[in-house]
Every structure is written in structure tokens, then in C-alpha cells.
Amino acid sequence: MFPFKNNISLDRNINRSLYLQLCDQIIGYIKSGKLPPSTKLLGSRKLAEDLNIHRKTVISAYDELISQGWIETVPAKGTFVTSSLPIITPKKIDPLASKTNLKNKSDFSFLTRPHLKRKYANTCNKNVLKIDDGCPDHRLAPIEEIAKTYRNITKKNYHKNLLTYSSVYGNLELRKALVTYLNQTRGLHITIDNILITRGSQMGIYLTSQLILPNNNRIIVGSTNYMTADNTFIEAGGCIEQVPIDDQGIVTDAIEKLCKTKTISAVYVTSHHHHPTTVTLSAKRRMQLLQLAQHYKFAIIEDDYDYDFHYSNAPILPLASNDNNGNVLYIGGFTKIIAPAMRIGYLIAPKDFIDEAATLRRVIDRQGDTLLEQTLAQMINTGDVQRHCNKVLKIYKTRRDLFCSLLQEKLSNFFDFEVPKGGMAIWVKLHSTYNWDVVYNEIEKSSIAFSTHWKRYDNDNSKHNGVRMGFAALNEKEIHEVINQLVIVFKKLYT
Amino acid sequence: MFPFKNNISLDRNINRSLYLQLCDQIIGYIKSGKLPPSTKLLGSRKLAEDLNIHRKTVISAYDELISQGWIETVPAKGTFVTSSLPIITPKKIDPLASKTNLKNKSDFSFLTRPHLKRKYANTCNKNVLKIDDGCPDHRLAPIEEIAKTYRNITKKNYHKNLLTYSSVYGNLELRKALVTYLNQTRGLHITIDNILITRGSQMGIYLTSQLILPNNNRIIVGSTNYMTADNTFIEAGGCIEQVPIDDQGIVTDAIEKLCKTKTISAVYVTSHHHHPTTVTLSAKRRMQLLQLAQHYKFAIIEDDYDYDFHYSNAPILPLASNDNNGNVLYIGGFTKIIAPAMRIGYLIAPKDFIDEAATLRRVIDRQGDTLLEQTLAQMINTGDVQRHCNKVLKIYKTRRDLFCSLLQEKLSNFFDFEVPKGGMAIWVKLHSTYNWDVVYNEIEKSSIAFSTHWKRYDNDNSKHNGVRMGFAALNEKEIHEVINQLVIVFKKLYT
Q: ipTM of this predicted complex?
């Protein structure tokens, strides 16, 4: 007889009734072969006694197991594991293995994706000041306004319909609000048919890549380029062609040269501030790029992730402005303005492309978070988003100026950099006589950290020695601290 | 001279300053070739007069355009469109075309996805009672509790860190809460390493498909099967093999037969209630399926989308319970319990698979909505989710019983069905002497509607004549109304 007494353990403190715990464990023994088909079970009275539980609990468990087909009653003989169940050879469990997590390894094949694993993050978990690669300061996020608007929306009964399945294109109110907002502020001429609401701009990059790049289709990017975008293009099956970036942005002559010899499907640009070097694409290059796209019929994937953050003059209108030819796919979002965790973005494109992107998005995650989208729509319409944007813009400008002036004053012997016209990071090049590995090694012992590794910015191995230093997420006190620590590190290493 | 007066229109009522509106429009004319390089611009005094604006506005606009590189000043001569810009031949705009949306068509190539377009939705927009295919009643969603919990979280200053970038695996608190919740209620033995938080269960299906099915890898599904899952498998590049479904669920003998002749990568099952036929996979078949998976080393993709909704007895433990061999990928979510728009789900799998899924998810949408995930974690820990679930379970059971008894009483001459043990829909087969097309046509004229088309359930053309009738989203009054309308339709057609 199977030793139930030693093998069943019931816990009155967990959130599952005793009779179901008993079921679960008996099923487990049946499935693992320890209770083979036709095994006789203890009578309910005896089992109740052994386990020190009420007999009714055992009867409920047996009833449940009978109704699920695991056990059966034979009149006048008793209760048995269902005789028609398959016979399982119990596995001998290696006592060592059982101490480790049994669910570590899959017993089937699947693809791995080494191309997505070039992460180059620094895994410093110390609670220290971090230099990121250009993140917003989440401490400034208008979170209370969001929660308040969100709650007000949920209080209105007619908003209950926001809770059921809705359009894969995104919340209608938000699409309407964006039509007005983007047409007024970015010179677009779009209707709601040109908008798909996405989960942050990353989903826009993913969707466009999946539609354009399979079958080794070629995409041109700047050298060096935003690594996650490159990863997304490779994931989609695309082939990356690199062209140089100079102080006017991506070199259009090099693009033209490539177009003459190869079929190009798309060009990826972060036209406002190139990632990572922060340079703005010049007027001349903008016009040339649009001309080339029309002539060679390629798509321009314009990732305008930090449009709102331009300090020296007004933000530069995107390539997508005045594009009536249908070449530009415009990607943006609210993660930089509001908060990284608020993953709402948009893809702006000709209607036929939007429809295909929506069709694909349907099988990825069905739709967005309608309530959050409605909240954002309301905050755009009331001007809350714009006001918040103006507020943080001023704060970030002050931080940029402070960071750059301290860098210039205290570290210009080691670094070259230009004051960025916008964005949240400075492109800082270490003089070629120094070595980032040595510097990183020393920084690790200090009270600050870099959140990304320098190799992230040199995925084509060009040895430019540049890294992005984010200034936006640090307040003025923290900026002083970071620079002071850098000074200490460099003094220690090089004097 | 370019006629600025007639071609610039400024609007004081929109959310963009006048000088930027002026910039936008001049840039537009430069980009479209109507203001070619070296064109002389009007002096600021004259242009201000023509446009009836302050001269300072024009000067600000010209300064901005100069700094962006669109125009340049030649000393003692005036202001000109930058001479080095490329020359564009202005397009003649077809006056008819300009009236339609210019952004309808892309001027580049992309892939279309006909396999994702088998939608079979009924596009009835009349505000009438709808028979859906098994949706929860969003009117019952605990939306105020969610909004309250959400707001409480946002009020705590230490929660601000939920707003910045966080783990691609999902919020840590939610993963911890799910480990306890799932281990206790579903017989799983998992740690947080086995969980990836997804956007609803659909993202779980998408991720697993993308990892397992490319290169025409074979997946076995029941005939007939949940259409969106089939679409997702084809999208991933998989090859679908169909096996029959009977009253015990998917026919495992047929799976074994296939495994003997072909390499099978995965089997997709909705074991609790097969979609669409609602049948529960029997104990015997469960054990056989697990045996086959171990023997032939395929993955079982177990989509347990409505685990919580089982009325006759306790929910049946998933295949994933007691799976220490690493064959089962378990997919679930909260869209059915809470609300369809709350798109939080989870993928449970061996650690090596979870890591790959997370790597892929990184380029799809970066991460989930951390605040909402934290909200849900709190509601699981306080027992709110379980209490809500118990509450709606009772309501849905009453609705199922009413719907089935009325169907039996009033329409059994036309339909065959079994009372489903769980879920939110009844699998209703129209007697083969009748025709769904005729019935749908008549229903369209009535005051009710079907939200999906019968063809959706017969994608292998087996002529089973079955459709899903969702009962959960209709209250008792609405159920009476729906049945009465169906009675009227059938009487009109067939008496």
C-alpha cells in the first residue's frame, strides 16, 4: 500500500482548501507513476485518520478525483486509480538534482537569438549615482496628475466600455488628440487613418522592421547607431548596411552610392539628435534624404524619440513634415516626456502601411491599455502634457549647461565633447591616449557607476572612444557629485 | 517674387506660436521645391505688413530658419533660401488627389500578411445586444478597486522608481505574487525564474511561437482550433498539423501517429476548455499527452485562458502541474478575470526558455506597465483578485444555467449543445438541415447581433455547423431578450 501518511502534506495556512491540496498531491503521484493504474486507495475513514483531517474532506477529494477521471469506484471493492490510465515508469530523482530548480531546462528544441544578446550593460547593483545613456528623470514624472485623471475616468460609468476589447489601432480619443497635436506641432498633415498607437516607440521599430526587412532586405543605418534598433532589424531578418555619420548627421552621399549598387529597403534615422552622437541632421541632408527615398523608393524610418527636448532653438520639424509622397514612417512616444514605464508611443505612416502594422500587432498583444490611452488623450487635450514638457525642458537645459560647464572646466584634459543642442546625453570622447577599460575599472571602485558599457557605442569597432553621458536624470547636486568623482578617478589614474 | 501673402496662413487659435507656423510653412515650400535655393525672401518689414503680424515675429522666424540652415543672410543683399540646398522639381498636385488623403499609399515595398486577415468578424455597429464568442462582462470589472490601488501606489514616494526602466521579465512584486498564487492554486512548482509577465496571454502565444516554430517547424492543433492562435503560428513561420477533437479533448492517438512519421515541435492545447468546443481534456489524455511530449521531445503550449471559470467542480489542474520534465509552456492571464483591456498575462516555462523569451520581448515593447503590474500584485496579495473571481464565478454560473435552460426549452428543435462545464461560451451546433448563412442574414435584421461569423469556427471547412455563443457578458434580462429574438428569427424562417 502506498504510504500516504508520509507522502501527503497539507497546509492549513495556504490559500487552497485542504480537499484540493489532497487532490493535487494524489494527481501528482498518479502522473509521476508512483500510483499506477488500478492501485487501491485507502478508505476515506482510514486516510482521514492517517492525515488527521475530517473524513468529509477525503470524501470531497475522492469525489473530485472521480469526476475528473483520475480514480474510480468499484462497487463492493473500494476506490482505485483509474485502470485505463497509461502506465508511467517512475523516474528516479537524483537527490542532488532535486535540490536545484527542476524547471531550469527545457526538454524540447527552440531557437536562440545570439544577435539580441549584445547587451553591454554594466551590472552594478550598488546603490550609487549612475551615469545613464540619456534617460529622463522619473522623479519629475507627473504621476499624480496621471493617477488623478485615470481615477476620474474610471469613475464615469460611460467609460466602462473602455474595459472591453477595443480597436487594435488604439484608443480613438488618443488618436484624435494626436492628429491635432502632431499636425500643429510637427507640420504633419495626417488623419486618424495614419496613426497606430504602440507600446512605446520600440514597438514602432519592431513592427516596421517586421513588415519591411524579412528575406535579407537591406536597411541603411549610421555608423555607429542605436544598438537596440540594430538588434531589432537583425531580428526581423534584415541586412544592415552602415554609412558614416558626420557633424551634419548621416552622410547622404554614402547612401546614394549604396543605392546605385544595391536595392535598399529602408534607411533608419534619428534625425533630431542622432543616437549616439547627438548631432542634428542638417537642412541640406534632410532634403537630399527625402529626394533619394523618392527616387529609389525606400522607406525612411524616422525615430524621433526626443523631439521635445531641444534647447538652443525650436525643435526641428521631422522629415515626416510635408511628406505627401509616402516615404516616411514616423515613430515617437511619450516615454521620454512622461516616464519610461508609461509605454505609449505611435507609428505615423501611410494608411496602407498602418493597416498592415495593425494586422501584425493583433497577434502580438491584441491591443493597448485603453484606460491609460484615454488618460493620456485627456492630458494632451487639457494641455497638461505640453505644460509638463515645457517645465522639464527648462530643468534639463539647466542640467545640460551645468554638466557641460563642469566637464569643460574640470575634465577637458581627458575628454572632447560638444554641447548637444538637445536630448538628454552628451557625446563624450575620451582622448585616444586613454583607455575606457582602465577608466571603467577604476570607476567601479568609486561611488558612481556607468549604466552602460562603452562597447555599446562601438559595435562596429571603429575605436572612436565615445560614450554617451546622460545628464537629464541627475539633479544639480548629483551632477556636481558625479563630476567630482570622475575628477578623482582621472587624477588617481593619470597624475 | 513668391506670393507669400496668398500662400502663408497663420492661425492664432492653434497651439503653436506664430513665428513657428511661419517657419513650418516656409520650410514646406523649400522642401517641395516651390522656394528653390537662392530665392530671395521678402524683407521682414514687408512680410510682416503682408501677413499682418508684428515684425519681430518675422525676425524670430528668419532667425530660426537661419539656425536650422534653411535660409542664409548675404550682407547688404538680403535673405535667401540657402544656396547649397538641393534643387527639387515641384510636383504638380492633381487637384482631385489633393482633396483625398495624400497619405493613403506608401511609396516603398513591404510585406503583406494575408494569413492574418481571416477575420470573420461581423461588422455590426448597431447599438444592439451582441452574442460574442465568450467574453467576460466588463461591467463587472473591479475598476474602482484598481484605480484606488493604482492611486495609492503613486502616492508613495518610494514607488517613483516604478516609473523608470525596469526588468523585461516584469515587475518583481508581481512575479513573486504569482509564484505563490500559481503554486498554491494550480499545483505548479515554480520560482520567479520561471515567469515572464506578458501583455495578456496573446503575447505568450506570440513569443513561444517565434521561439519554436520558424523554418516550417510543425505544430499540432485540434480541428477546429482557436483562430488567432493558428494565425500566430503561421505568422511565426510554423506549419500547422490538425488532429481531431472529440468529447475527451484532443485525440492523443492521432498525435502519436503523426509523431511517428514527422518531427513535431509543439502541440497547442486549451486543455481546460477546448476552444471552440469547450470540452475538457480527460485525465487519460492528459497523461498520454505528457508521455508523448517526453518521448518525442516536443513542447506542449498550454493556453489556460479561462482556468478560473469552471462551474461543475473544482478547476482541473493544468498539464503544467507536476511537470518537472520541462515540456510544458503554460500561458495564462488576467484579461478574463479582471477586464479585457487590462492586458496582463504570464508565460510559465523552464528558465532557459523564459530567458530567450525575455530577450525577444526586449525588442518588441521593452517591458510592461510596471505601475499596473504593481497594482495587480497588490490585489493578488490582499486577496482582492480571488474574491472578485469568486464573485463573478457565481454570476457566470447563473447566466450559464439560464442561457442553457432557455436554449433547451425554446430552441432545441434547431440546436444541439451540451452544458459547458466551464468557460464563458456554449458550443452550439445548428442542425444540419439548417444553414447559418440564412440564419445570420435574418438575425442582421433583428435587434440582436453575432459579433463573430460562423466561419471563424470552421476554418478547416468540416461543416460541423457549430458556433460559440457567449453567455457571460449578458445579464439575465439580456439573456431572455437574446433567446426571445432568436426564437422570433427561427420561427420566421422555419415555420
A: 0.94
